[in-house]
Design a protein that fits this description.
The protein is α/β, with parallel strands linked by helices and 357 residues long. 25% of the residues lie in helices and 30% in strands. It folds into three domains: 3-198, HUPs (Rossmann fold); 211-264, SH3 type barrels; 270-347, Elongation Factor Tu (Ef-tu), domain 3 (Beta Barrel), CATH 2.40.30.10. It has a six-stranded antiparallel barrel with strand order 12-15-14-13-16-17.
Length: 357
C-alpha cells in the first residue's frame, strides 16, 4: 500500500483530498505546517480543524513547526520587497520554500513516504518525449492554481498528487458532504494567511515598516499630493490616492530611493514588455531561441499572447503582442502552451535594456 502524506490546512479542499485518497486505498498521513501564530486556515484554527479531520478519518496527524522558515522566506521577503518599492507575490515563494519542499523532506525523513498530496487545483503528468513532469491547469479553470505553483522543481512534481485538479469546486463540496466531513460547509478563505492574521496587508506591513511620508508626483515630477509610505501602494492602483484631478490617475512607479509615488493616466500604466528573473522552466527544458506562449501576469488576469526571449542566467524578456496594464515588479509572470504551464518567474523592476539584451 502506497503511503501518501497529505498537507492539511483545515479547509475543505485539503480535507477532501485526504478523504479521497483514503477511499482509494492509500495509507494516508495528515501533515499540518505551523507557519505562524494567529487565526486563519494555516494557523491555530486550521490546526484544530485538521486534527478533527484526521480523527474522523482515523489517520495519523503530524504538526511541524516551521515558523522560522516562514519568517525568513515570507515575512522578511515581503518586508524587504515592499520597502524597496516592489510588490512581492508570497504564495509561489511559500509553495516552493515553505510548503512543498519541507513537506516532502519531512515525509521522506520521518514518515517513510516519497509521496505528498495537497488540495490545490492543478494536474501533473509525465512527458516521455522530454523526460519531464509537466504541470497542467486544473479542469476547473475558475479555480486553477497553477499560477502559484510555477516555481515547483521536478523533484516535487514527480512525487506530488493533486486529486482535486480533475474535478470542479462544486464537486469538492459534494464529495466532502458525501464523506460527512465536518469541513464540508466551511467558508473558503478569501485572503492571504497574513491578511487573515493581521486584518489587512497594510496592518501587517506597518508592524515591520515605519510609514514615512513623501510626495506623490506626476511623471514630470510635479507634486500632486502626499503619501504616508510607499509600501501602502502598488503599480496600477487607482483608489486611495487622495488626489483631485481632471482625469483618473494610477500609480505607475514607486521610487523607493526618493520616497516618491509616481502617478499617470491609464495609458502610462501600459507596458510593451518586461524582464523576468528567477525563471523556473517547468514542463520543458530551457529554450535557446524565442518561443511564443500565453503569459499571465496576475492570478485573476487572462493569459495574453507574447514572445519569450531567453537571456541566460535564469532571465527572459517577455514581449507582449499587445501592451499590458499594470505589469508589477515582484509579481509572477507565468507562461503556458494551452493547458501546460511551461515556466515562470518574477517580474523585475523596469530598467533600460543594454545593447545585446
Amino acid at each position: 500500500m502506497k503511503k501518501v502524506v497529505v498537507g492539511l490546512s483545515g479547509g475543505v479542499d485539503s480535507s477532501t483530498t485526504a478523504a479521497i485518497l483514503c477511499d482509494r486505498g492509500y495509507d494516508v498521513v495528515g501533515l499540518t505546517l505551523w507557519l505562524m501564530k494567529g487565526k486563519g486556515q494555516c494557523c491555530s484554527e486550521g490546526m484544530v480543524d485538521a486534527a478533527k479531520l484526521c480523527d474522523q478519518l482515523g489517520i495519523p496527524h503530524h504538526i511541524v513547526d516551521i515558523r522560522d522558515v516562514f519568517q525568513e522566506n515570507i515575512v522578511d521577503y515581503l518586508v524587504t520587497g515592499y520597502s524597496a518599492g516592489i510588490t512581492p507575490l508570497p504564495c509561489s515563494q511559500c509553495n516552493r520554500a515553505v510548503k512543498f519542499g519541507p513537506m516532502l523532506k519531512y515525509a521522506r525523513e520521518h514518515l517513510g513516504s516519497d509521496y505528498i498530496a495537497t488540495g490545490h487545483y492543478a494536474r501533473t503528468r509525465y512527458d516521455e518525449a522530454s523526460g519531464r513532469y509537466q504541470l497542467l491547469r486544473a479542469i476547473d479553470r475558475s479555480k486553477d492554481q497553477t499560477y502559484f505553483l510555477y516555481d515547483l522543481p521536478q523533484d516535487v512534481l514527480s512525487q506530488v498528487m493533486f486529486p482535486l485538479g480533475e474535478q470542479p469546486k462544486t464537486k469538492t463540496r459534494q464529495v466532502a458532504a458525501e464523506f460527512g466531513l465536518h469541513t464540508a460547509e466551511k467558508p473558503e478563505s478569501q485572503d492571504l494567511c497574513l491578511i487573515e492574521a493581521n486584518g489587512s496587508m497594510r496592518a501587517f506591513l506597518d508592524k515591520y515598516i515605519t510609514p514615512q511620508k513623501g510626495d506623490i508626483v506626476d511623471q514630470s515630477g510635479k507634486v500632486l499630493g502626499q503619501h504616508d509610505g510607499i509600501h501602502h501602494y502598488t503599480i496600477g492602483q487607482r483608489k486611495g490616492l487622495g488626489i483631485a484631478h481632471s482625469e483618473p490617475l494610477y500609480v505607475v512607479a514607486l521610487d523607493a530611493v526618493n520616497n516618491r509615488v509616481i502617478v499617470g493616466d491609464r495609458a502610462a500604466t501600459l507596458s510593451a514588455e518586461c524582464t523576468v528573473q528567477r525563471v523556473n522552466w517547468v514542463s520543458m527544458v530551457e529554450p535557446t531561441t524565442p518561443i511564443k506562449a500565453e503569459v499571465q501576469i496576475r492570478y485573476r488576469s487572462p493569459a495574453t499572447s507574447a514572445t519569450i526571449i531567453p537571456l541566460g542566467n535564469s532571465r527572459v524578456r517577455v514581449v507582449f503582442d499587445e501592451p499590458q496594464s499594470s505589469v508589477t515588479p515582484g509579481q509572477a509572470a507565468v507562461w503556458y502552451d494551452g493547458e501546460v504551464l511551461l515556466g515562470g518567474g518574477v517580474i523585475e523592476p523596469h530598467r533600460e535594456l543594454k545593447d545585446g539584451e
